[in-house]
Design a protein that fits this description.
alpha+beta, 3 helices, elongated, S-protein homolog
Length: about 140
């Protein structure tokens, strides 16, 4: 009887965890985070990036990414078991402004980013950093 309990209880626990509402996103979904430079290129030196983007999480540092107008930078992540996955970025508009923003927060983004190809879309613009869950409607979530 003791051996049966040692086998059945872990199996029941594993089976029940797979049926939790967030289990699908925790273990199987790959989220794509896109940050696009939509800043104007005027007043910038020719052939020089006008946006420096530095993104990181607790475990992964993507480092500085110099971006020209129109460039898109993308990386992927999965949500950890505790749903605490977080990526934040420092967007520096060269010669103008700088802003830190949360590019991916598991509890905030697991639903809203799953609508459009599991993507979180960000656009850095002259008046702030915009978010879109469908690449059509944009919201200024982080004004400069």
């Amino acid at each position: 009887m003791g051996n049966l309990k040692n086998v059945v209880l872990p199996l029941l626990l594993a089976f029940s965890l797979l049926h939790l509402p967030f289990a699908k996103s925790v273990w199987f979904f790959n989220y794509h985070i896109h940050v696009r430079n939509d800043l104007p290129s005027r007043n910038s030196p020719p052939h020089q990036p006008n946006l420096l983007l530095h993104c990181k999480s607790k475990k992964r540092d993507i480092s500085d990414r110099p971006m020209m107008t129109g460039q898109d930078y993308t990386w992927d992540t999965k949500i950890n078991f505790f749903r605490t996955t977080l990526f934040f970025c420092n967007a520096r508009w060269v010669g103008h402004k700088s802003r830190i923003f949360d590019a991916f927060v598991a509890v905030r983004d697991e639903d809203r980013c799953s609508e459009y190809h599991s993507s979180c879309m960000w656009s850095v613009r002259p008046d702030g950093i915009y978010f879109s869950h469908n690449n059509a409607t944009w919201f200024n979530e982080y004004p400069w």
